[in-house]
């Protein structure tokens, strides 16, 4: 794993309530980051943290000296992990980590030198096998849901959606509304393309059942953003729910990236005019075809707006890095384009030069953009990103969705809508209004501040 930025321990160095919490995340960037942030938040509230992790994609313990890290064998070969989808990874870990996880808990519970009791386990809902194992140790299991509530509602509705004929998706009906899940269209449902649909549905069924059987759900979201979806989920699930996000607003900005960050992006941004730069990043997993990559490149260039573009190795299928770019492409931009392999995203979004974020709409990226008051151009790739993009463009109206394929003409047009036209000004006003709500919710008496107090009190009961 690449080196992370050294982060500062949370302010409270010595846990005061004498209770320990276990954490176990799916080992991918979009799940690991919020789990580490949550661990930091709860450490600051007096809990000691033991972070269980697979050897695949493991975090760097030296960046979290205030946590105890406990690796477990994942029994995954290099061949198995090469090019794995999120679904395949979750399925394999559920199949292969039951015994290693049980052995880990057995070791932790039999440690005679440690007298502090465990208050519970916080795990990823995709690791649904953890509830049964935790139950055998009389350990409460809480779920950290790393997507938004709108996406989780859609996932939990899959049996109904199959029954009503929405799934599997038929191209001819893709634009039709899903009446049970407004504002979603059939094409916005968080489906996963797989050659093993029966495995996918088993995984989703296990995830929903074991979440309903958990002691509570923790959300990296806030009431003011997802009030309607939260109300419906509370009705459907009948277990305690704690929207305490945005997690990263609870403490000073720091990195929990699994990829090395290129800080040249910040010095480049320092030279740009306020609100002038389009920041482009499609996340840590998505991959695009070479022809789409070239359309993105020319769309950005033709827009005449400066851009900071994250092109991580592996983004372009079948290509190492920037080889498809025409010779002299970057030089022809006269300094208006800067390409890096990975960027310190929170710093970038907070930079006054950034005027828009062209994003895949992973939940962390969506929330971070809202928190920094940055309008979005939405190009979702799969699963919950499809739902998030629809909410961004049609519920909160803080972004514009780029649909029906990537062409340089359409890209240039959407950039101009957001960066130059009245529509873009209105989007900016709305996202600044949401930014203010995000800032207020973590302040004393704010909704997330109060929800966090309730969570700490609730966990302390066990």
From TrEMBL:
UniProt-listed Pfam families: UDPGT
Keywords: Glycosyltransferase, Transferase
InterPro entries: UDP_glucos_trans
GO molecular function, one term: quercetin 3-O-glucosyltransferase activity
GO terms under biological process: glycoside biosynthetic process
Keyword Transferase recorded: yes
Family under the similarity heading: Belongs to the UDP-glycosyltransferase family.
Protein name: UDP-glycosyltransferase 76F1
């Amino acid at each position: 794993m690449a080196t992370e930025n050294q982060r500062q321990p949370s302010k409270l160095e010595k846990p005061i309530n004498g209770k320990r919490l276990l954490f176990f995340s799916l080992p991918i960037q979009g799940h690991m980051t919020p789990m580490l942030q949550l661990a930091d938040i709860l450490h600051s509230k007096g809990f000691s943290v033991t972070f269980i992790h697979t050897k695949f994609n493991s975090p760097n313990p030296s960046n979290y000296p205030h946590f105890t890290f406990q690796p477990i064998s994942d029994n995954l070969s290099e061949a198995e992990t090469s090019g794995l989808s999120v679904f395949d990874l979750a399925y394999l870990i559920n199949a292969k980590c039951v015994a290693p996880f049980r052995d880990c808990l057995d070791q932790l519970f039999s440690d005679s030198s440690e007298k502090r009791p465990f208050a519970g386990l916080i795990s990823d809902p995709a690791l649904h096998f953890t509830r049964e194992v935790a139950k055998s140790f009389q350990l409460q299991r809480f779920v950290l849901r790393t997507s938004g509530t709108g996406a989780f509602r859609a996932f939990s509705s899959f049996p109904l959606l199959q029954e009503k004929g929405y799934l599997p998706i038929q191209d001819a009906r893709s634009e039709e509304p899903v009446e049970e899940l407004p504002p979603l269209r059939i094409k916005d449902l968080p489906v996963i393309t797989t050659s093993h649909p029966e495995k996918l549905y088993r995984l989703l069924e296990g995830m929903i059942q074991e979440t309903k059987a958990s002691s509570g759900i923790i959300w990296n979201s806030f009431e003011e953003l997802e009030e309607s979806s939260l109300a419906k989920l509370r009705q459907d699930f009948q277990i305690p729910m704690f929207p305490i996000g945005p997690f990263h607003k609870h403490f000073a900005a720091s990195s929990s990236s699994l990829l090395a960050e290129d800080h040249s992006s910040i010095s480049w941004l320092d030279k740009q005019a306020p609100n002038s730069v389009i920041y482009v990043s499609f996340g840590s997993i998505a991959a695009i075809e070479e022809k789409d990559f070239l359309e993105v490149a020319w769309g950005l260039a033709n827009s005449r707006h400066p851009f900071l573009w994250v092109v991580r190795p592996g983004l372009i299928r079948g290509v190492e890095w920037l080889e498809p770019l025409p010779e002299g492409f970057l030089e022809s931009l006269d300094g208006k384009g800067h390409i890096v392999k990975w960027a310190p995203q929170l710093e970038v979004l907070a930079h006054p030069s950034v005027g828009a974020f062209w994003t895949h709409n992973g939940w962390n990226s969506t929330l971070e953009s809202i928190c920094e008051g940055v309008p979005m151009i939405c190009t979702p790739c799969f699963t919950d990103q499809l739902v998030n993009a629809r909410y961004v463009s049609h519920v909160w109206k803080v972004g514009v969705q780029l649909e029906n394929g990537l062409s340089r003409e359409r890209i240039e047009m959407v950039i101009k809508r957001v960066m130059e036209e009245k529509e873009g000004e209105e989007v900016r006003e709305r996202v600044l209004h949401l930014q203010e709500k995000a800032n207020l919710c973590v302040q004393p008496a704010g909704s997330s501040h109060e929800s966090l107090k309730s969570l700490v009190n609730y966990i302390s009961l066990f």
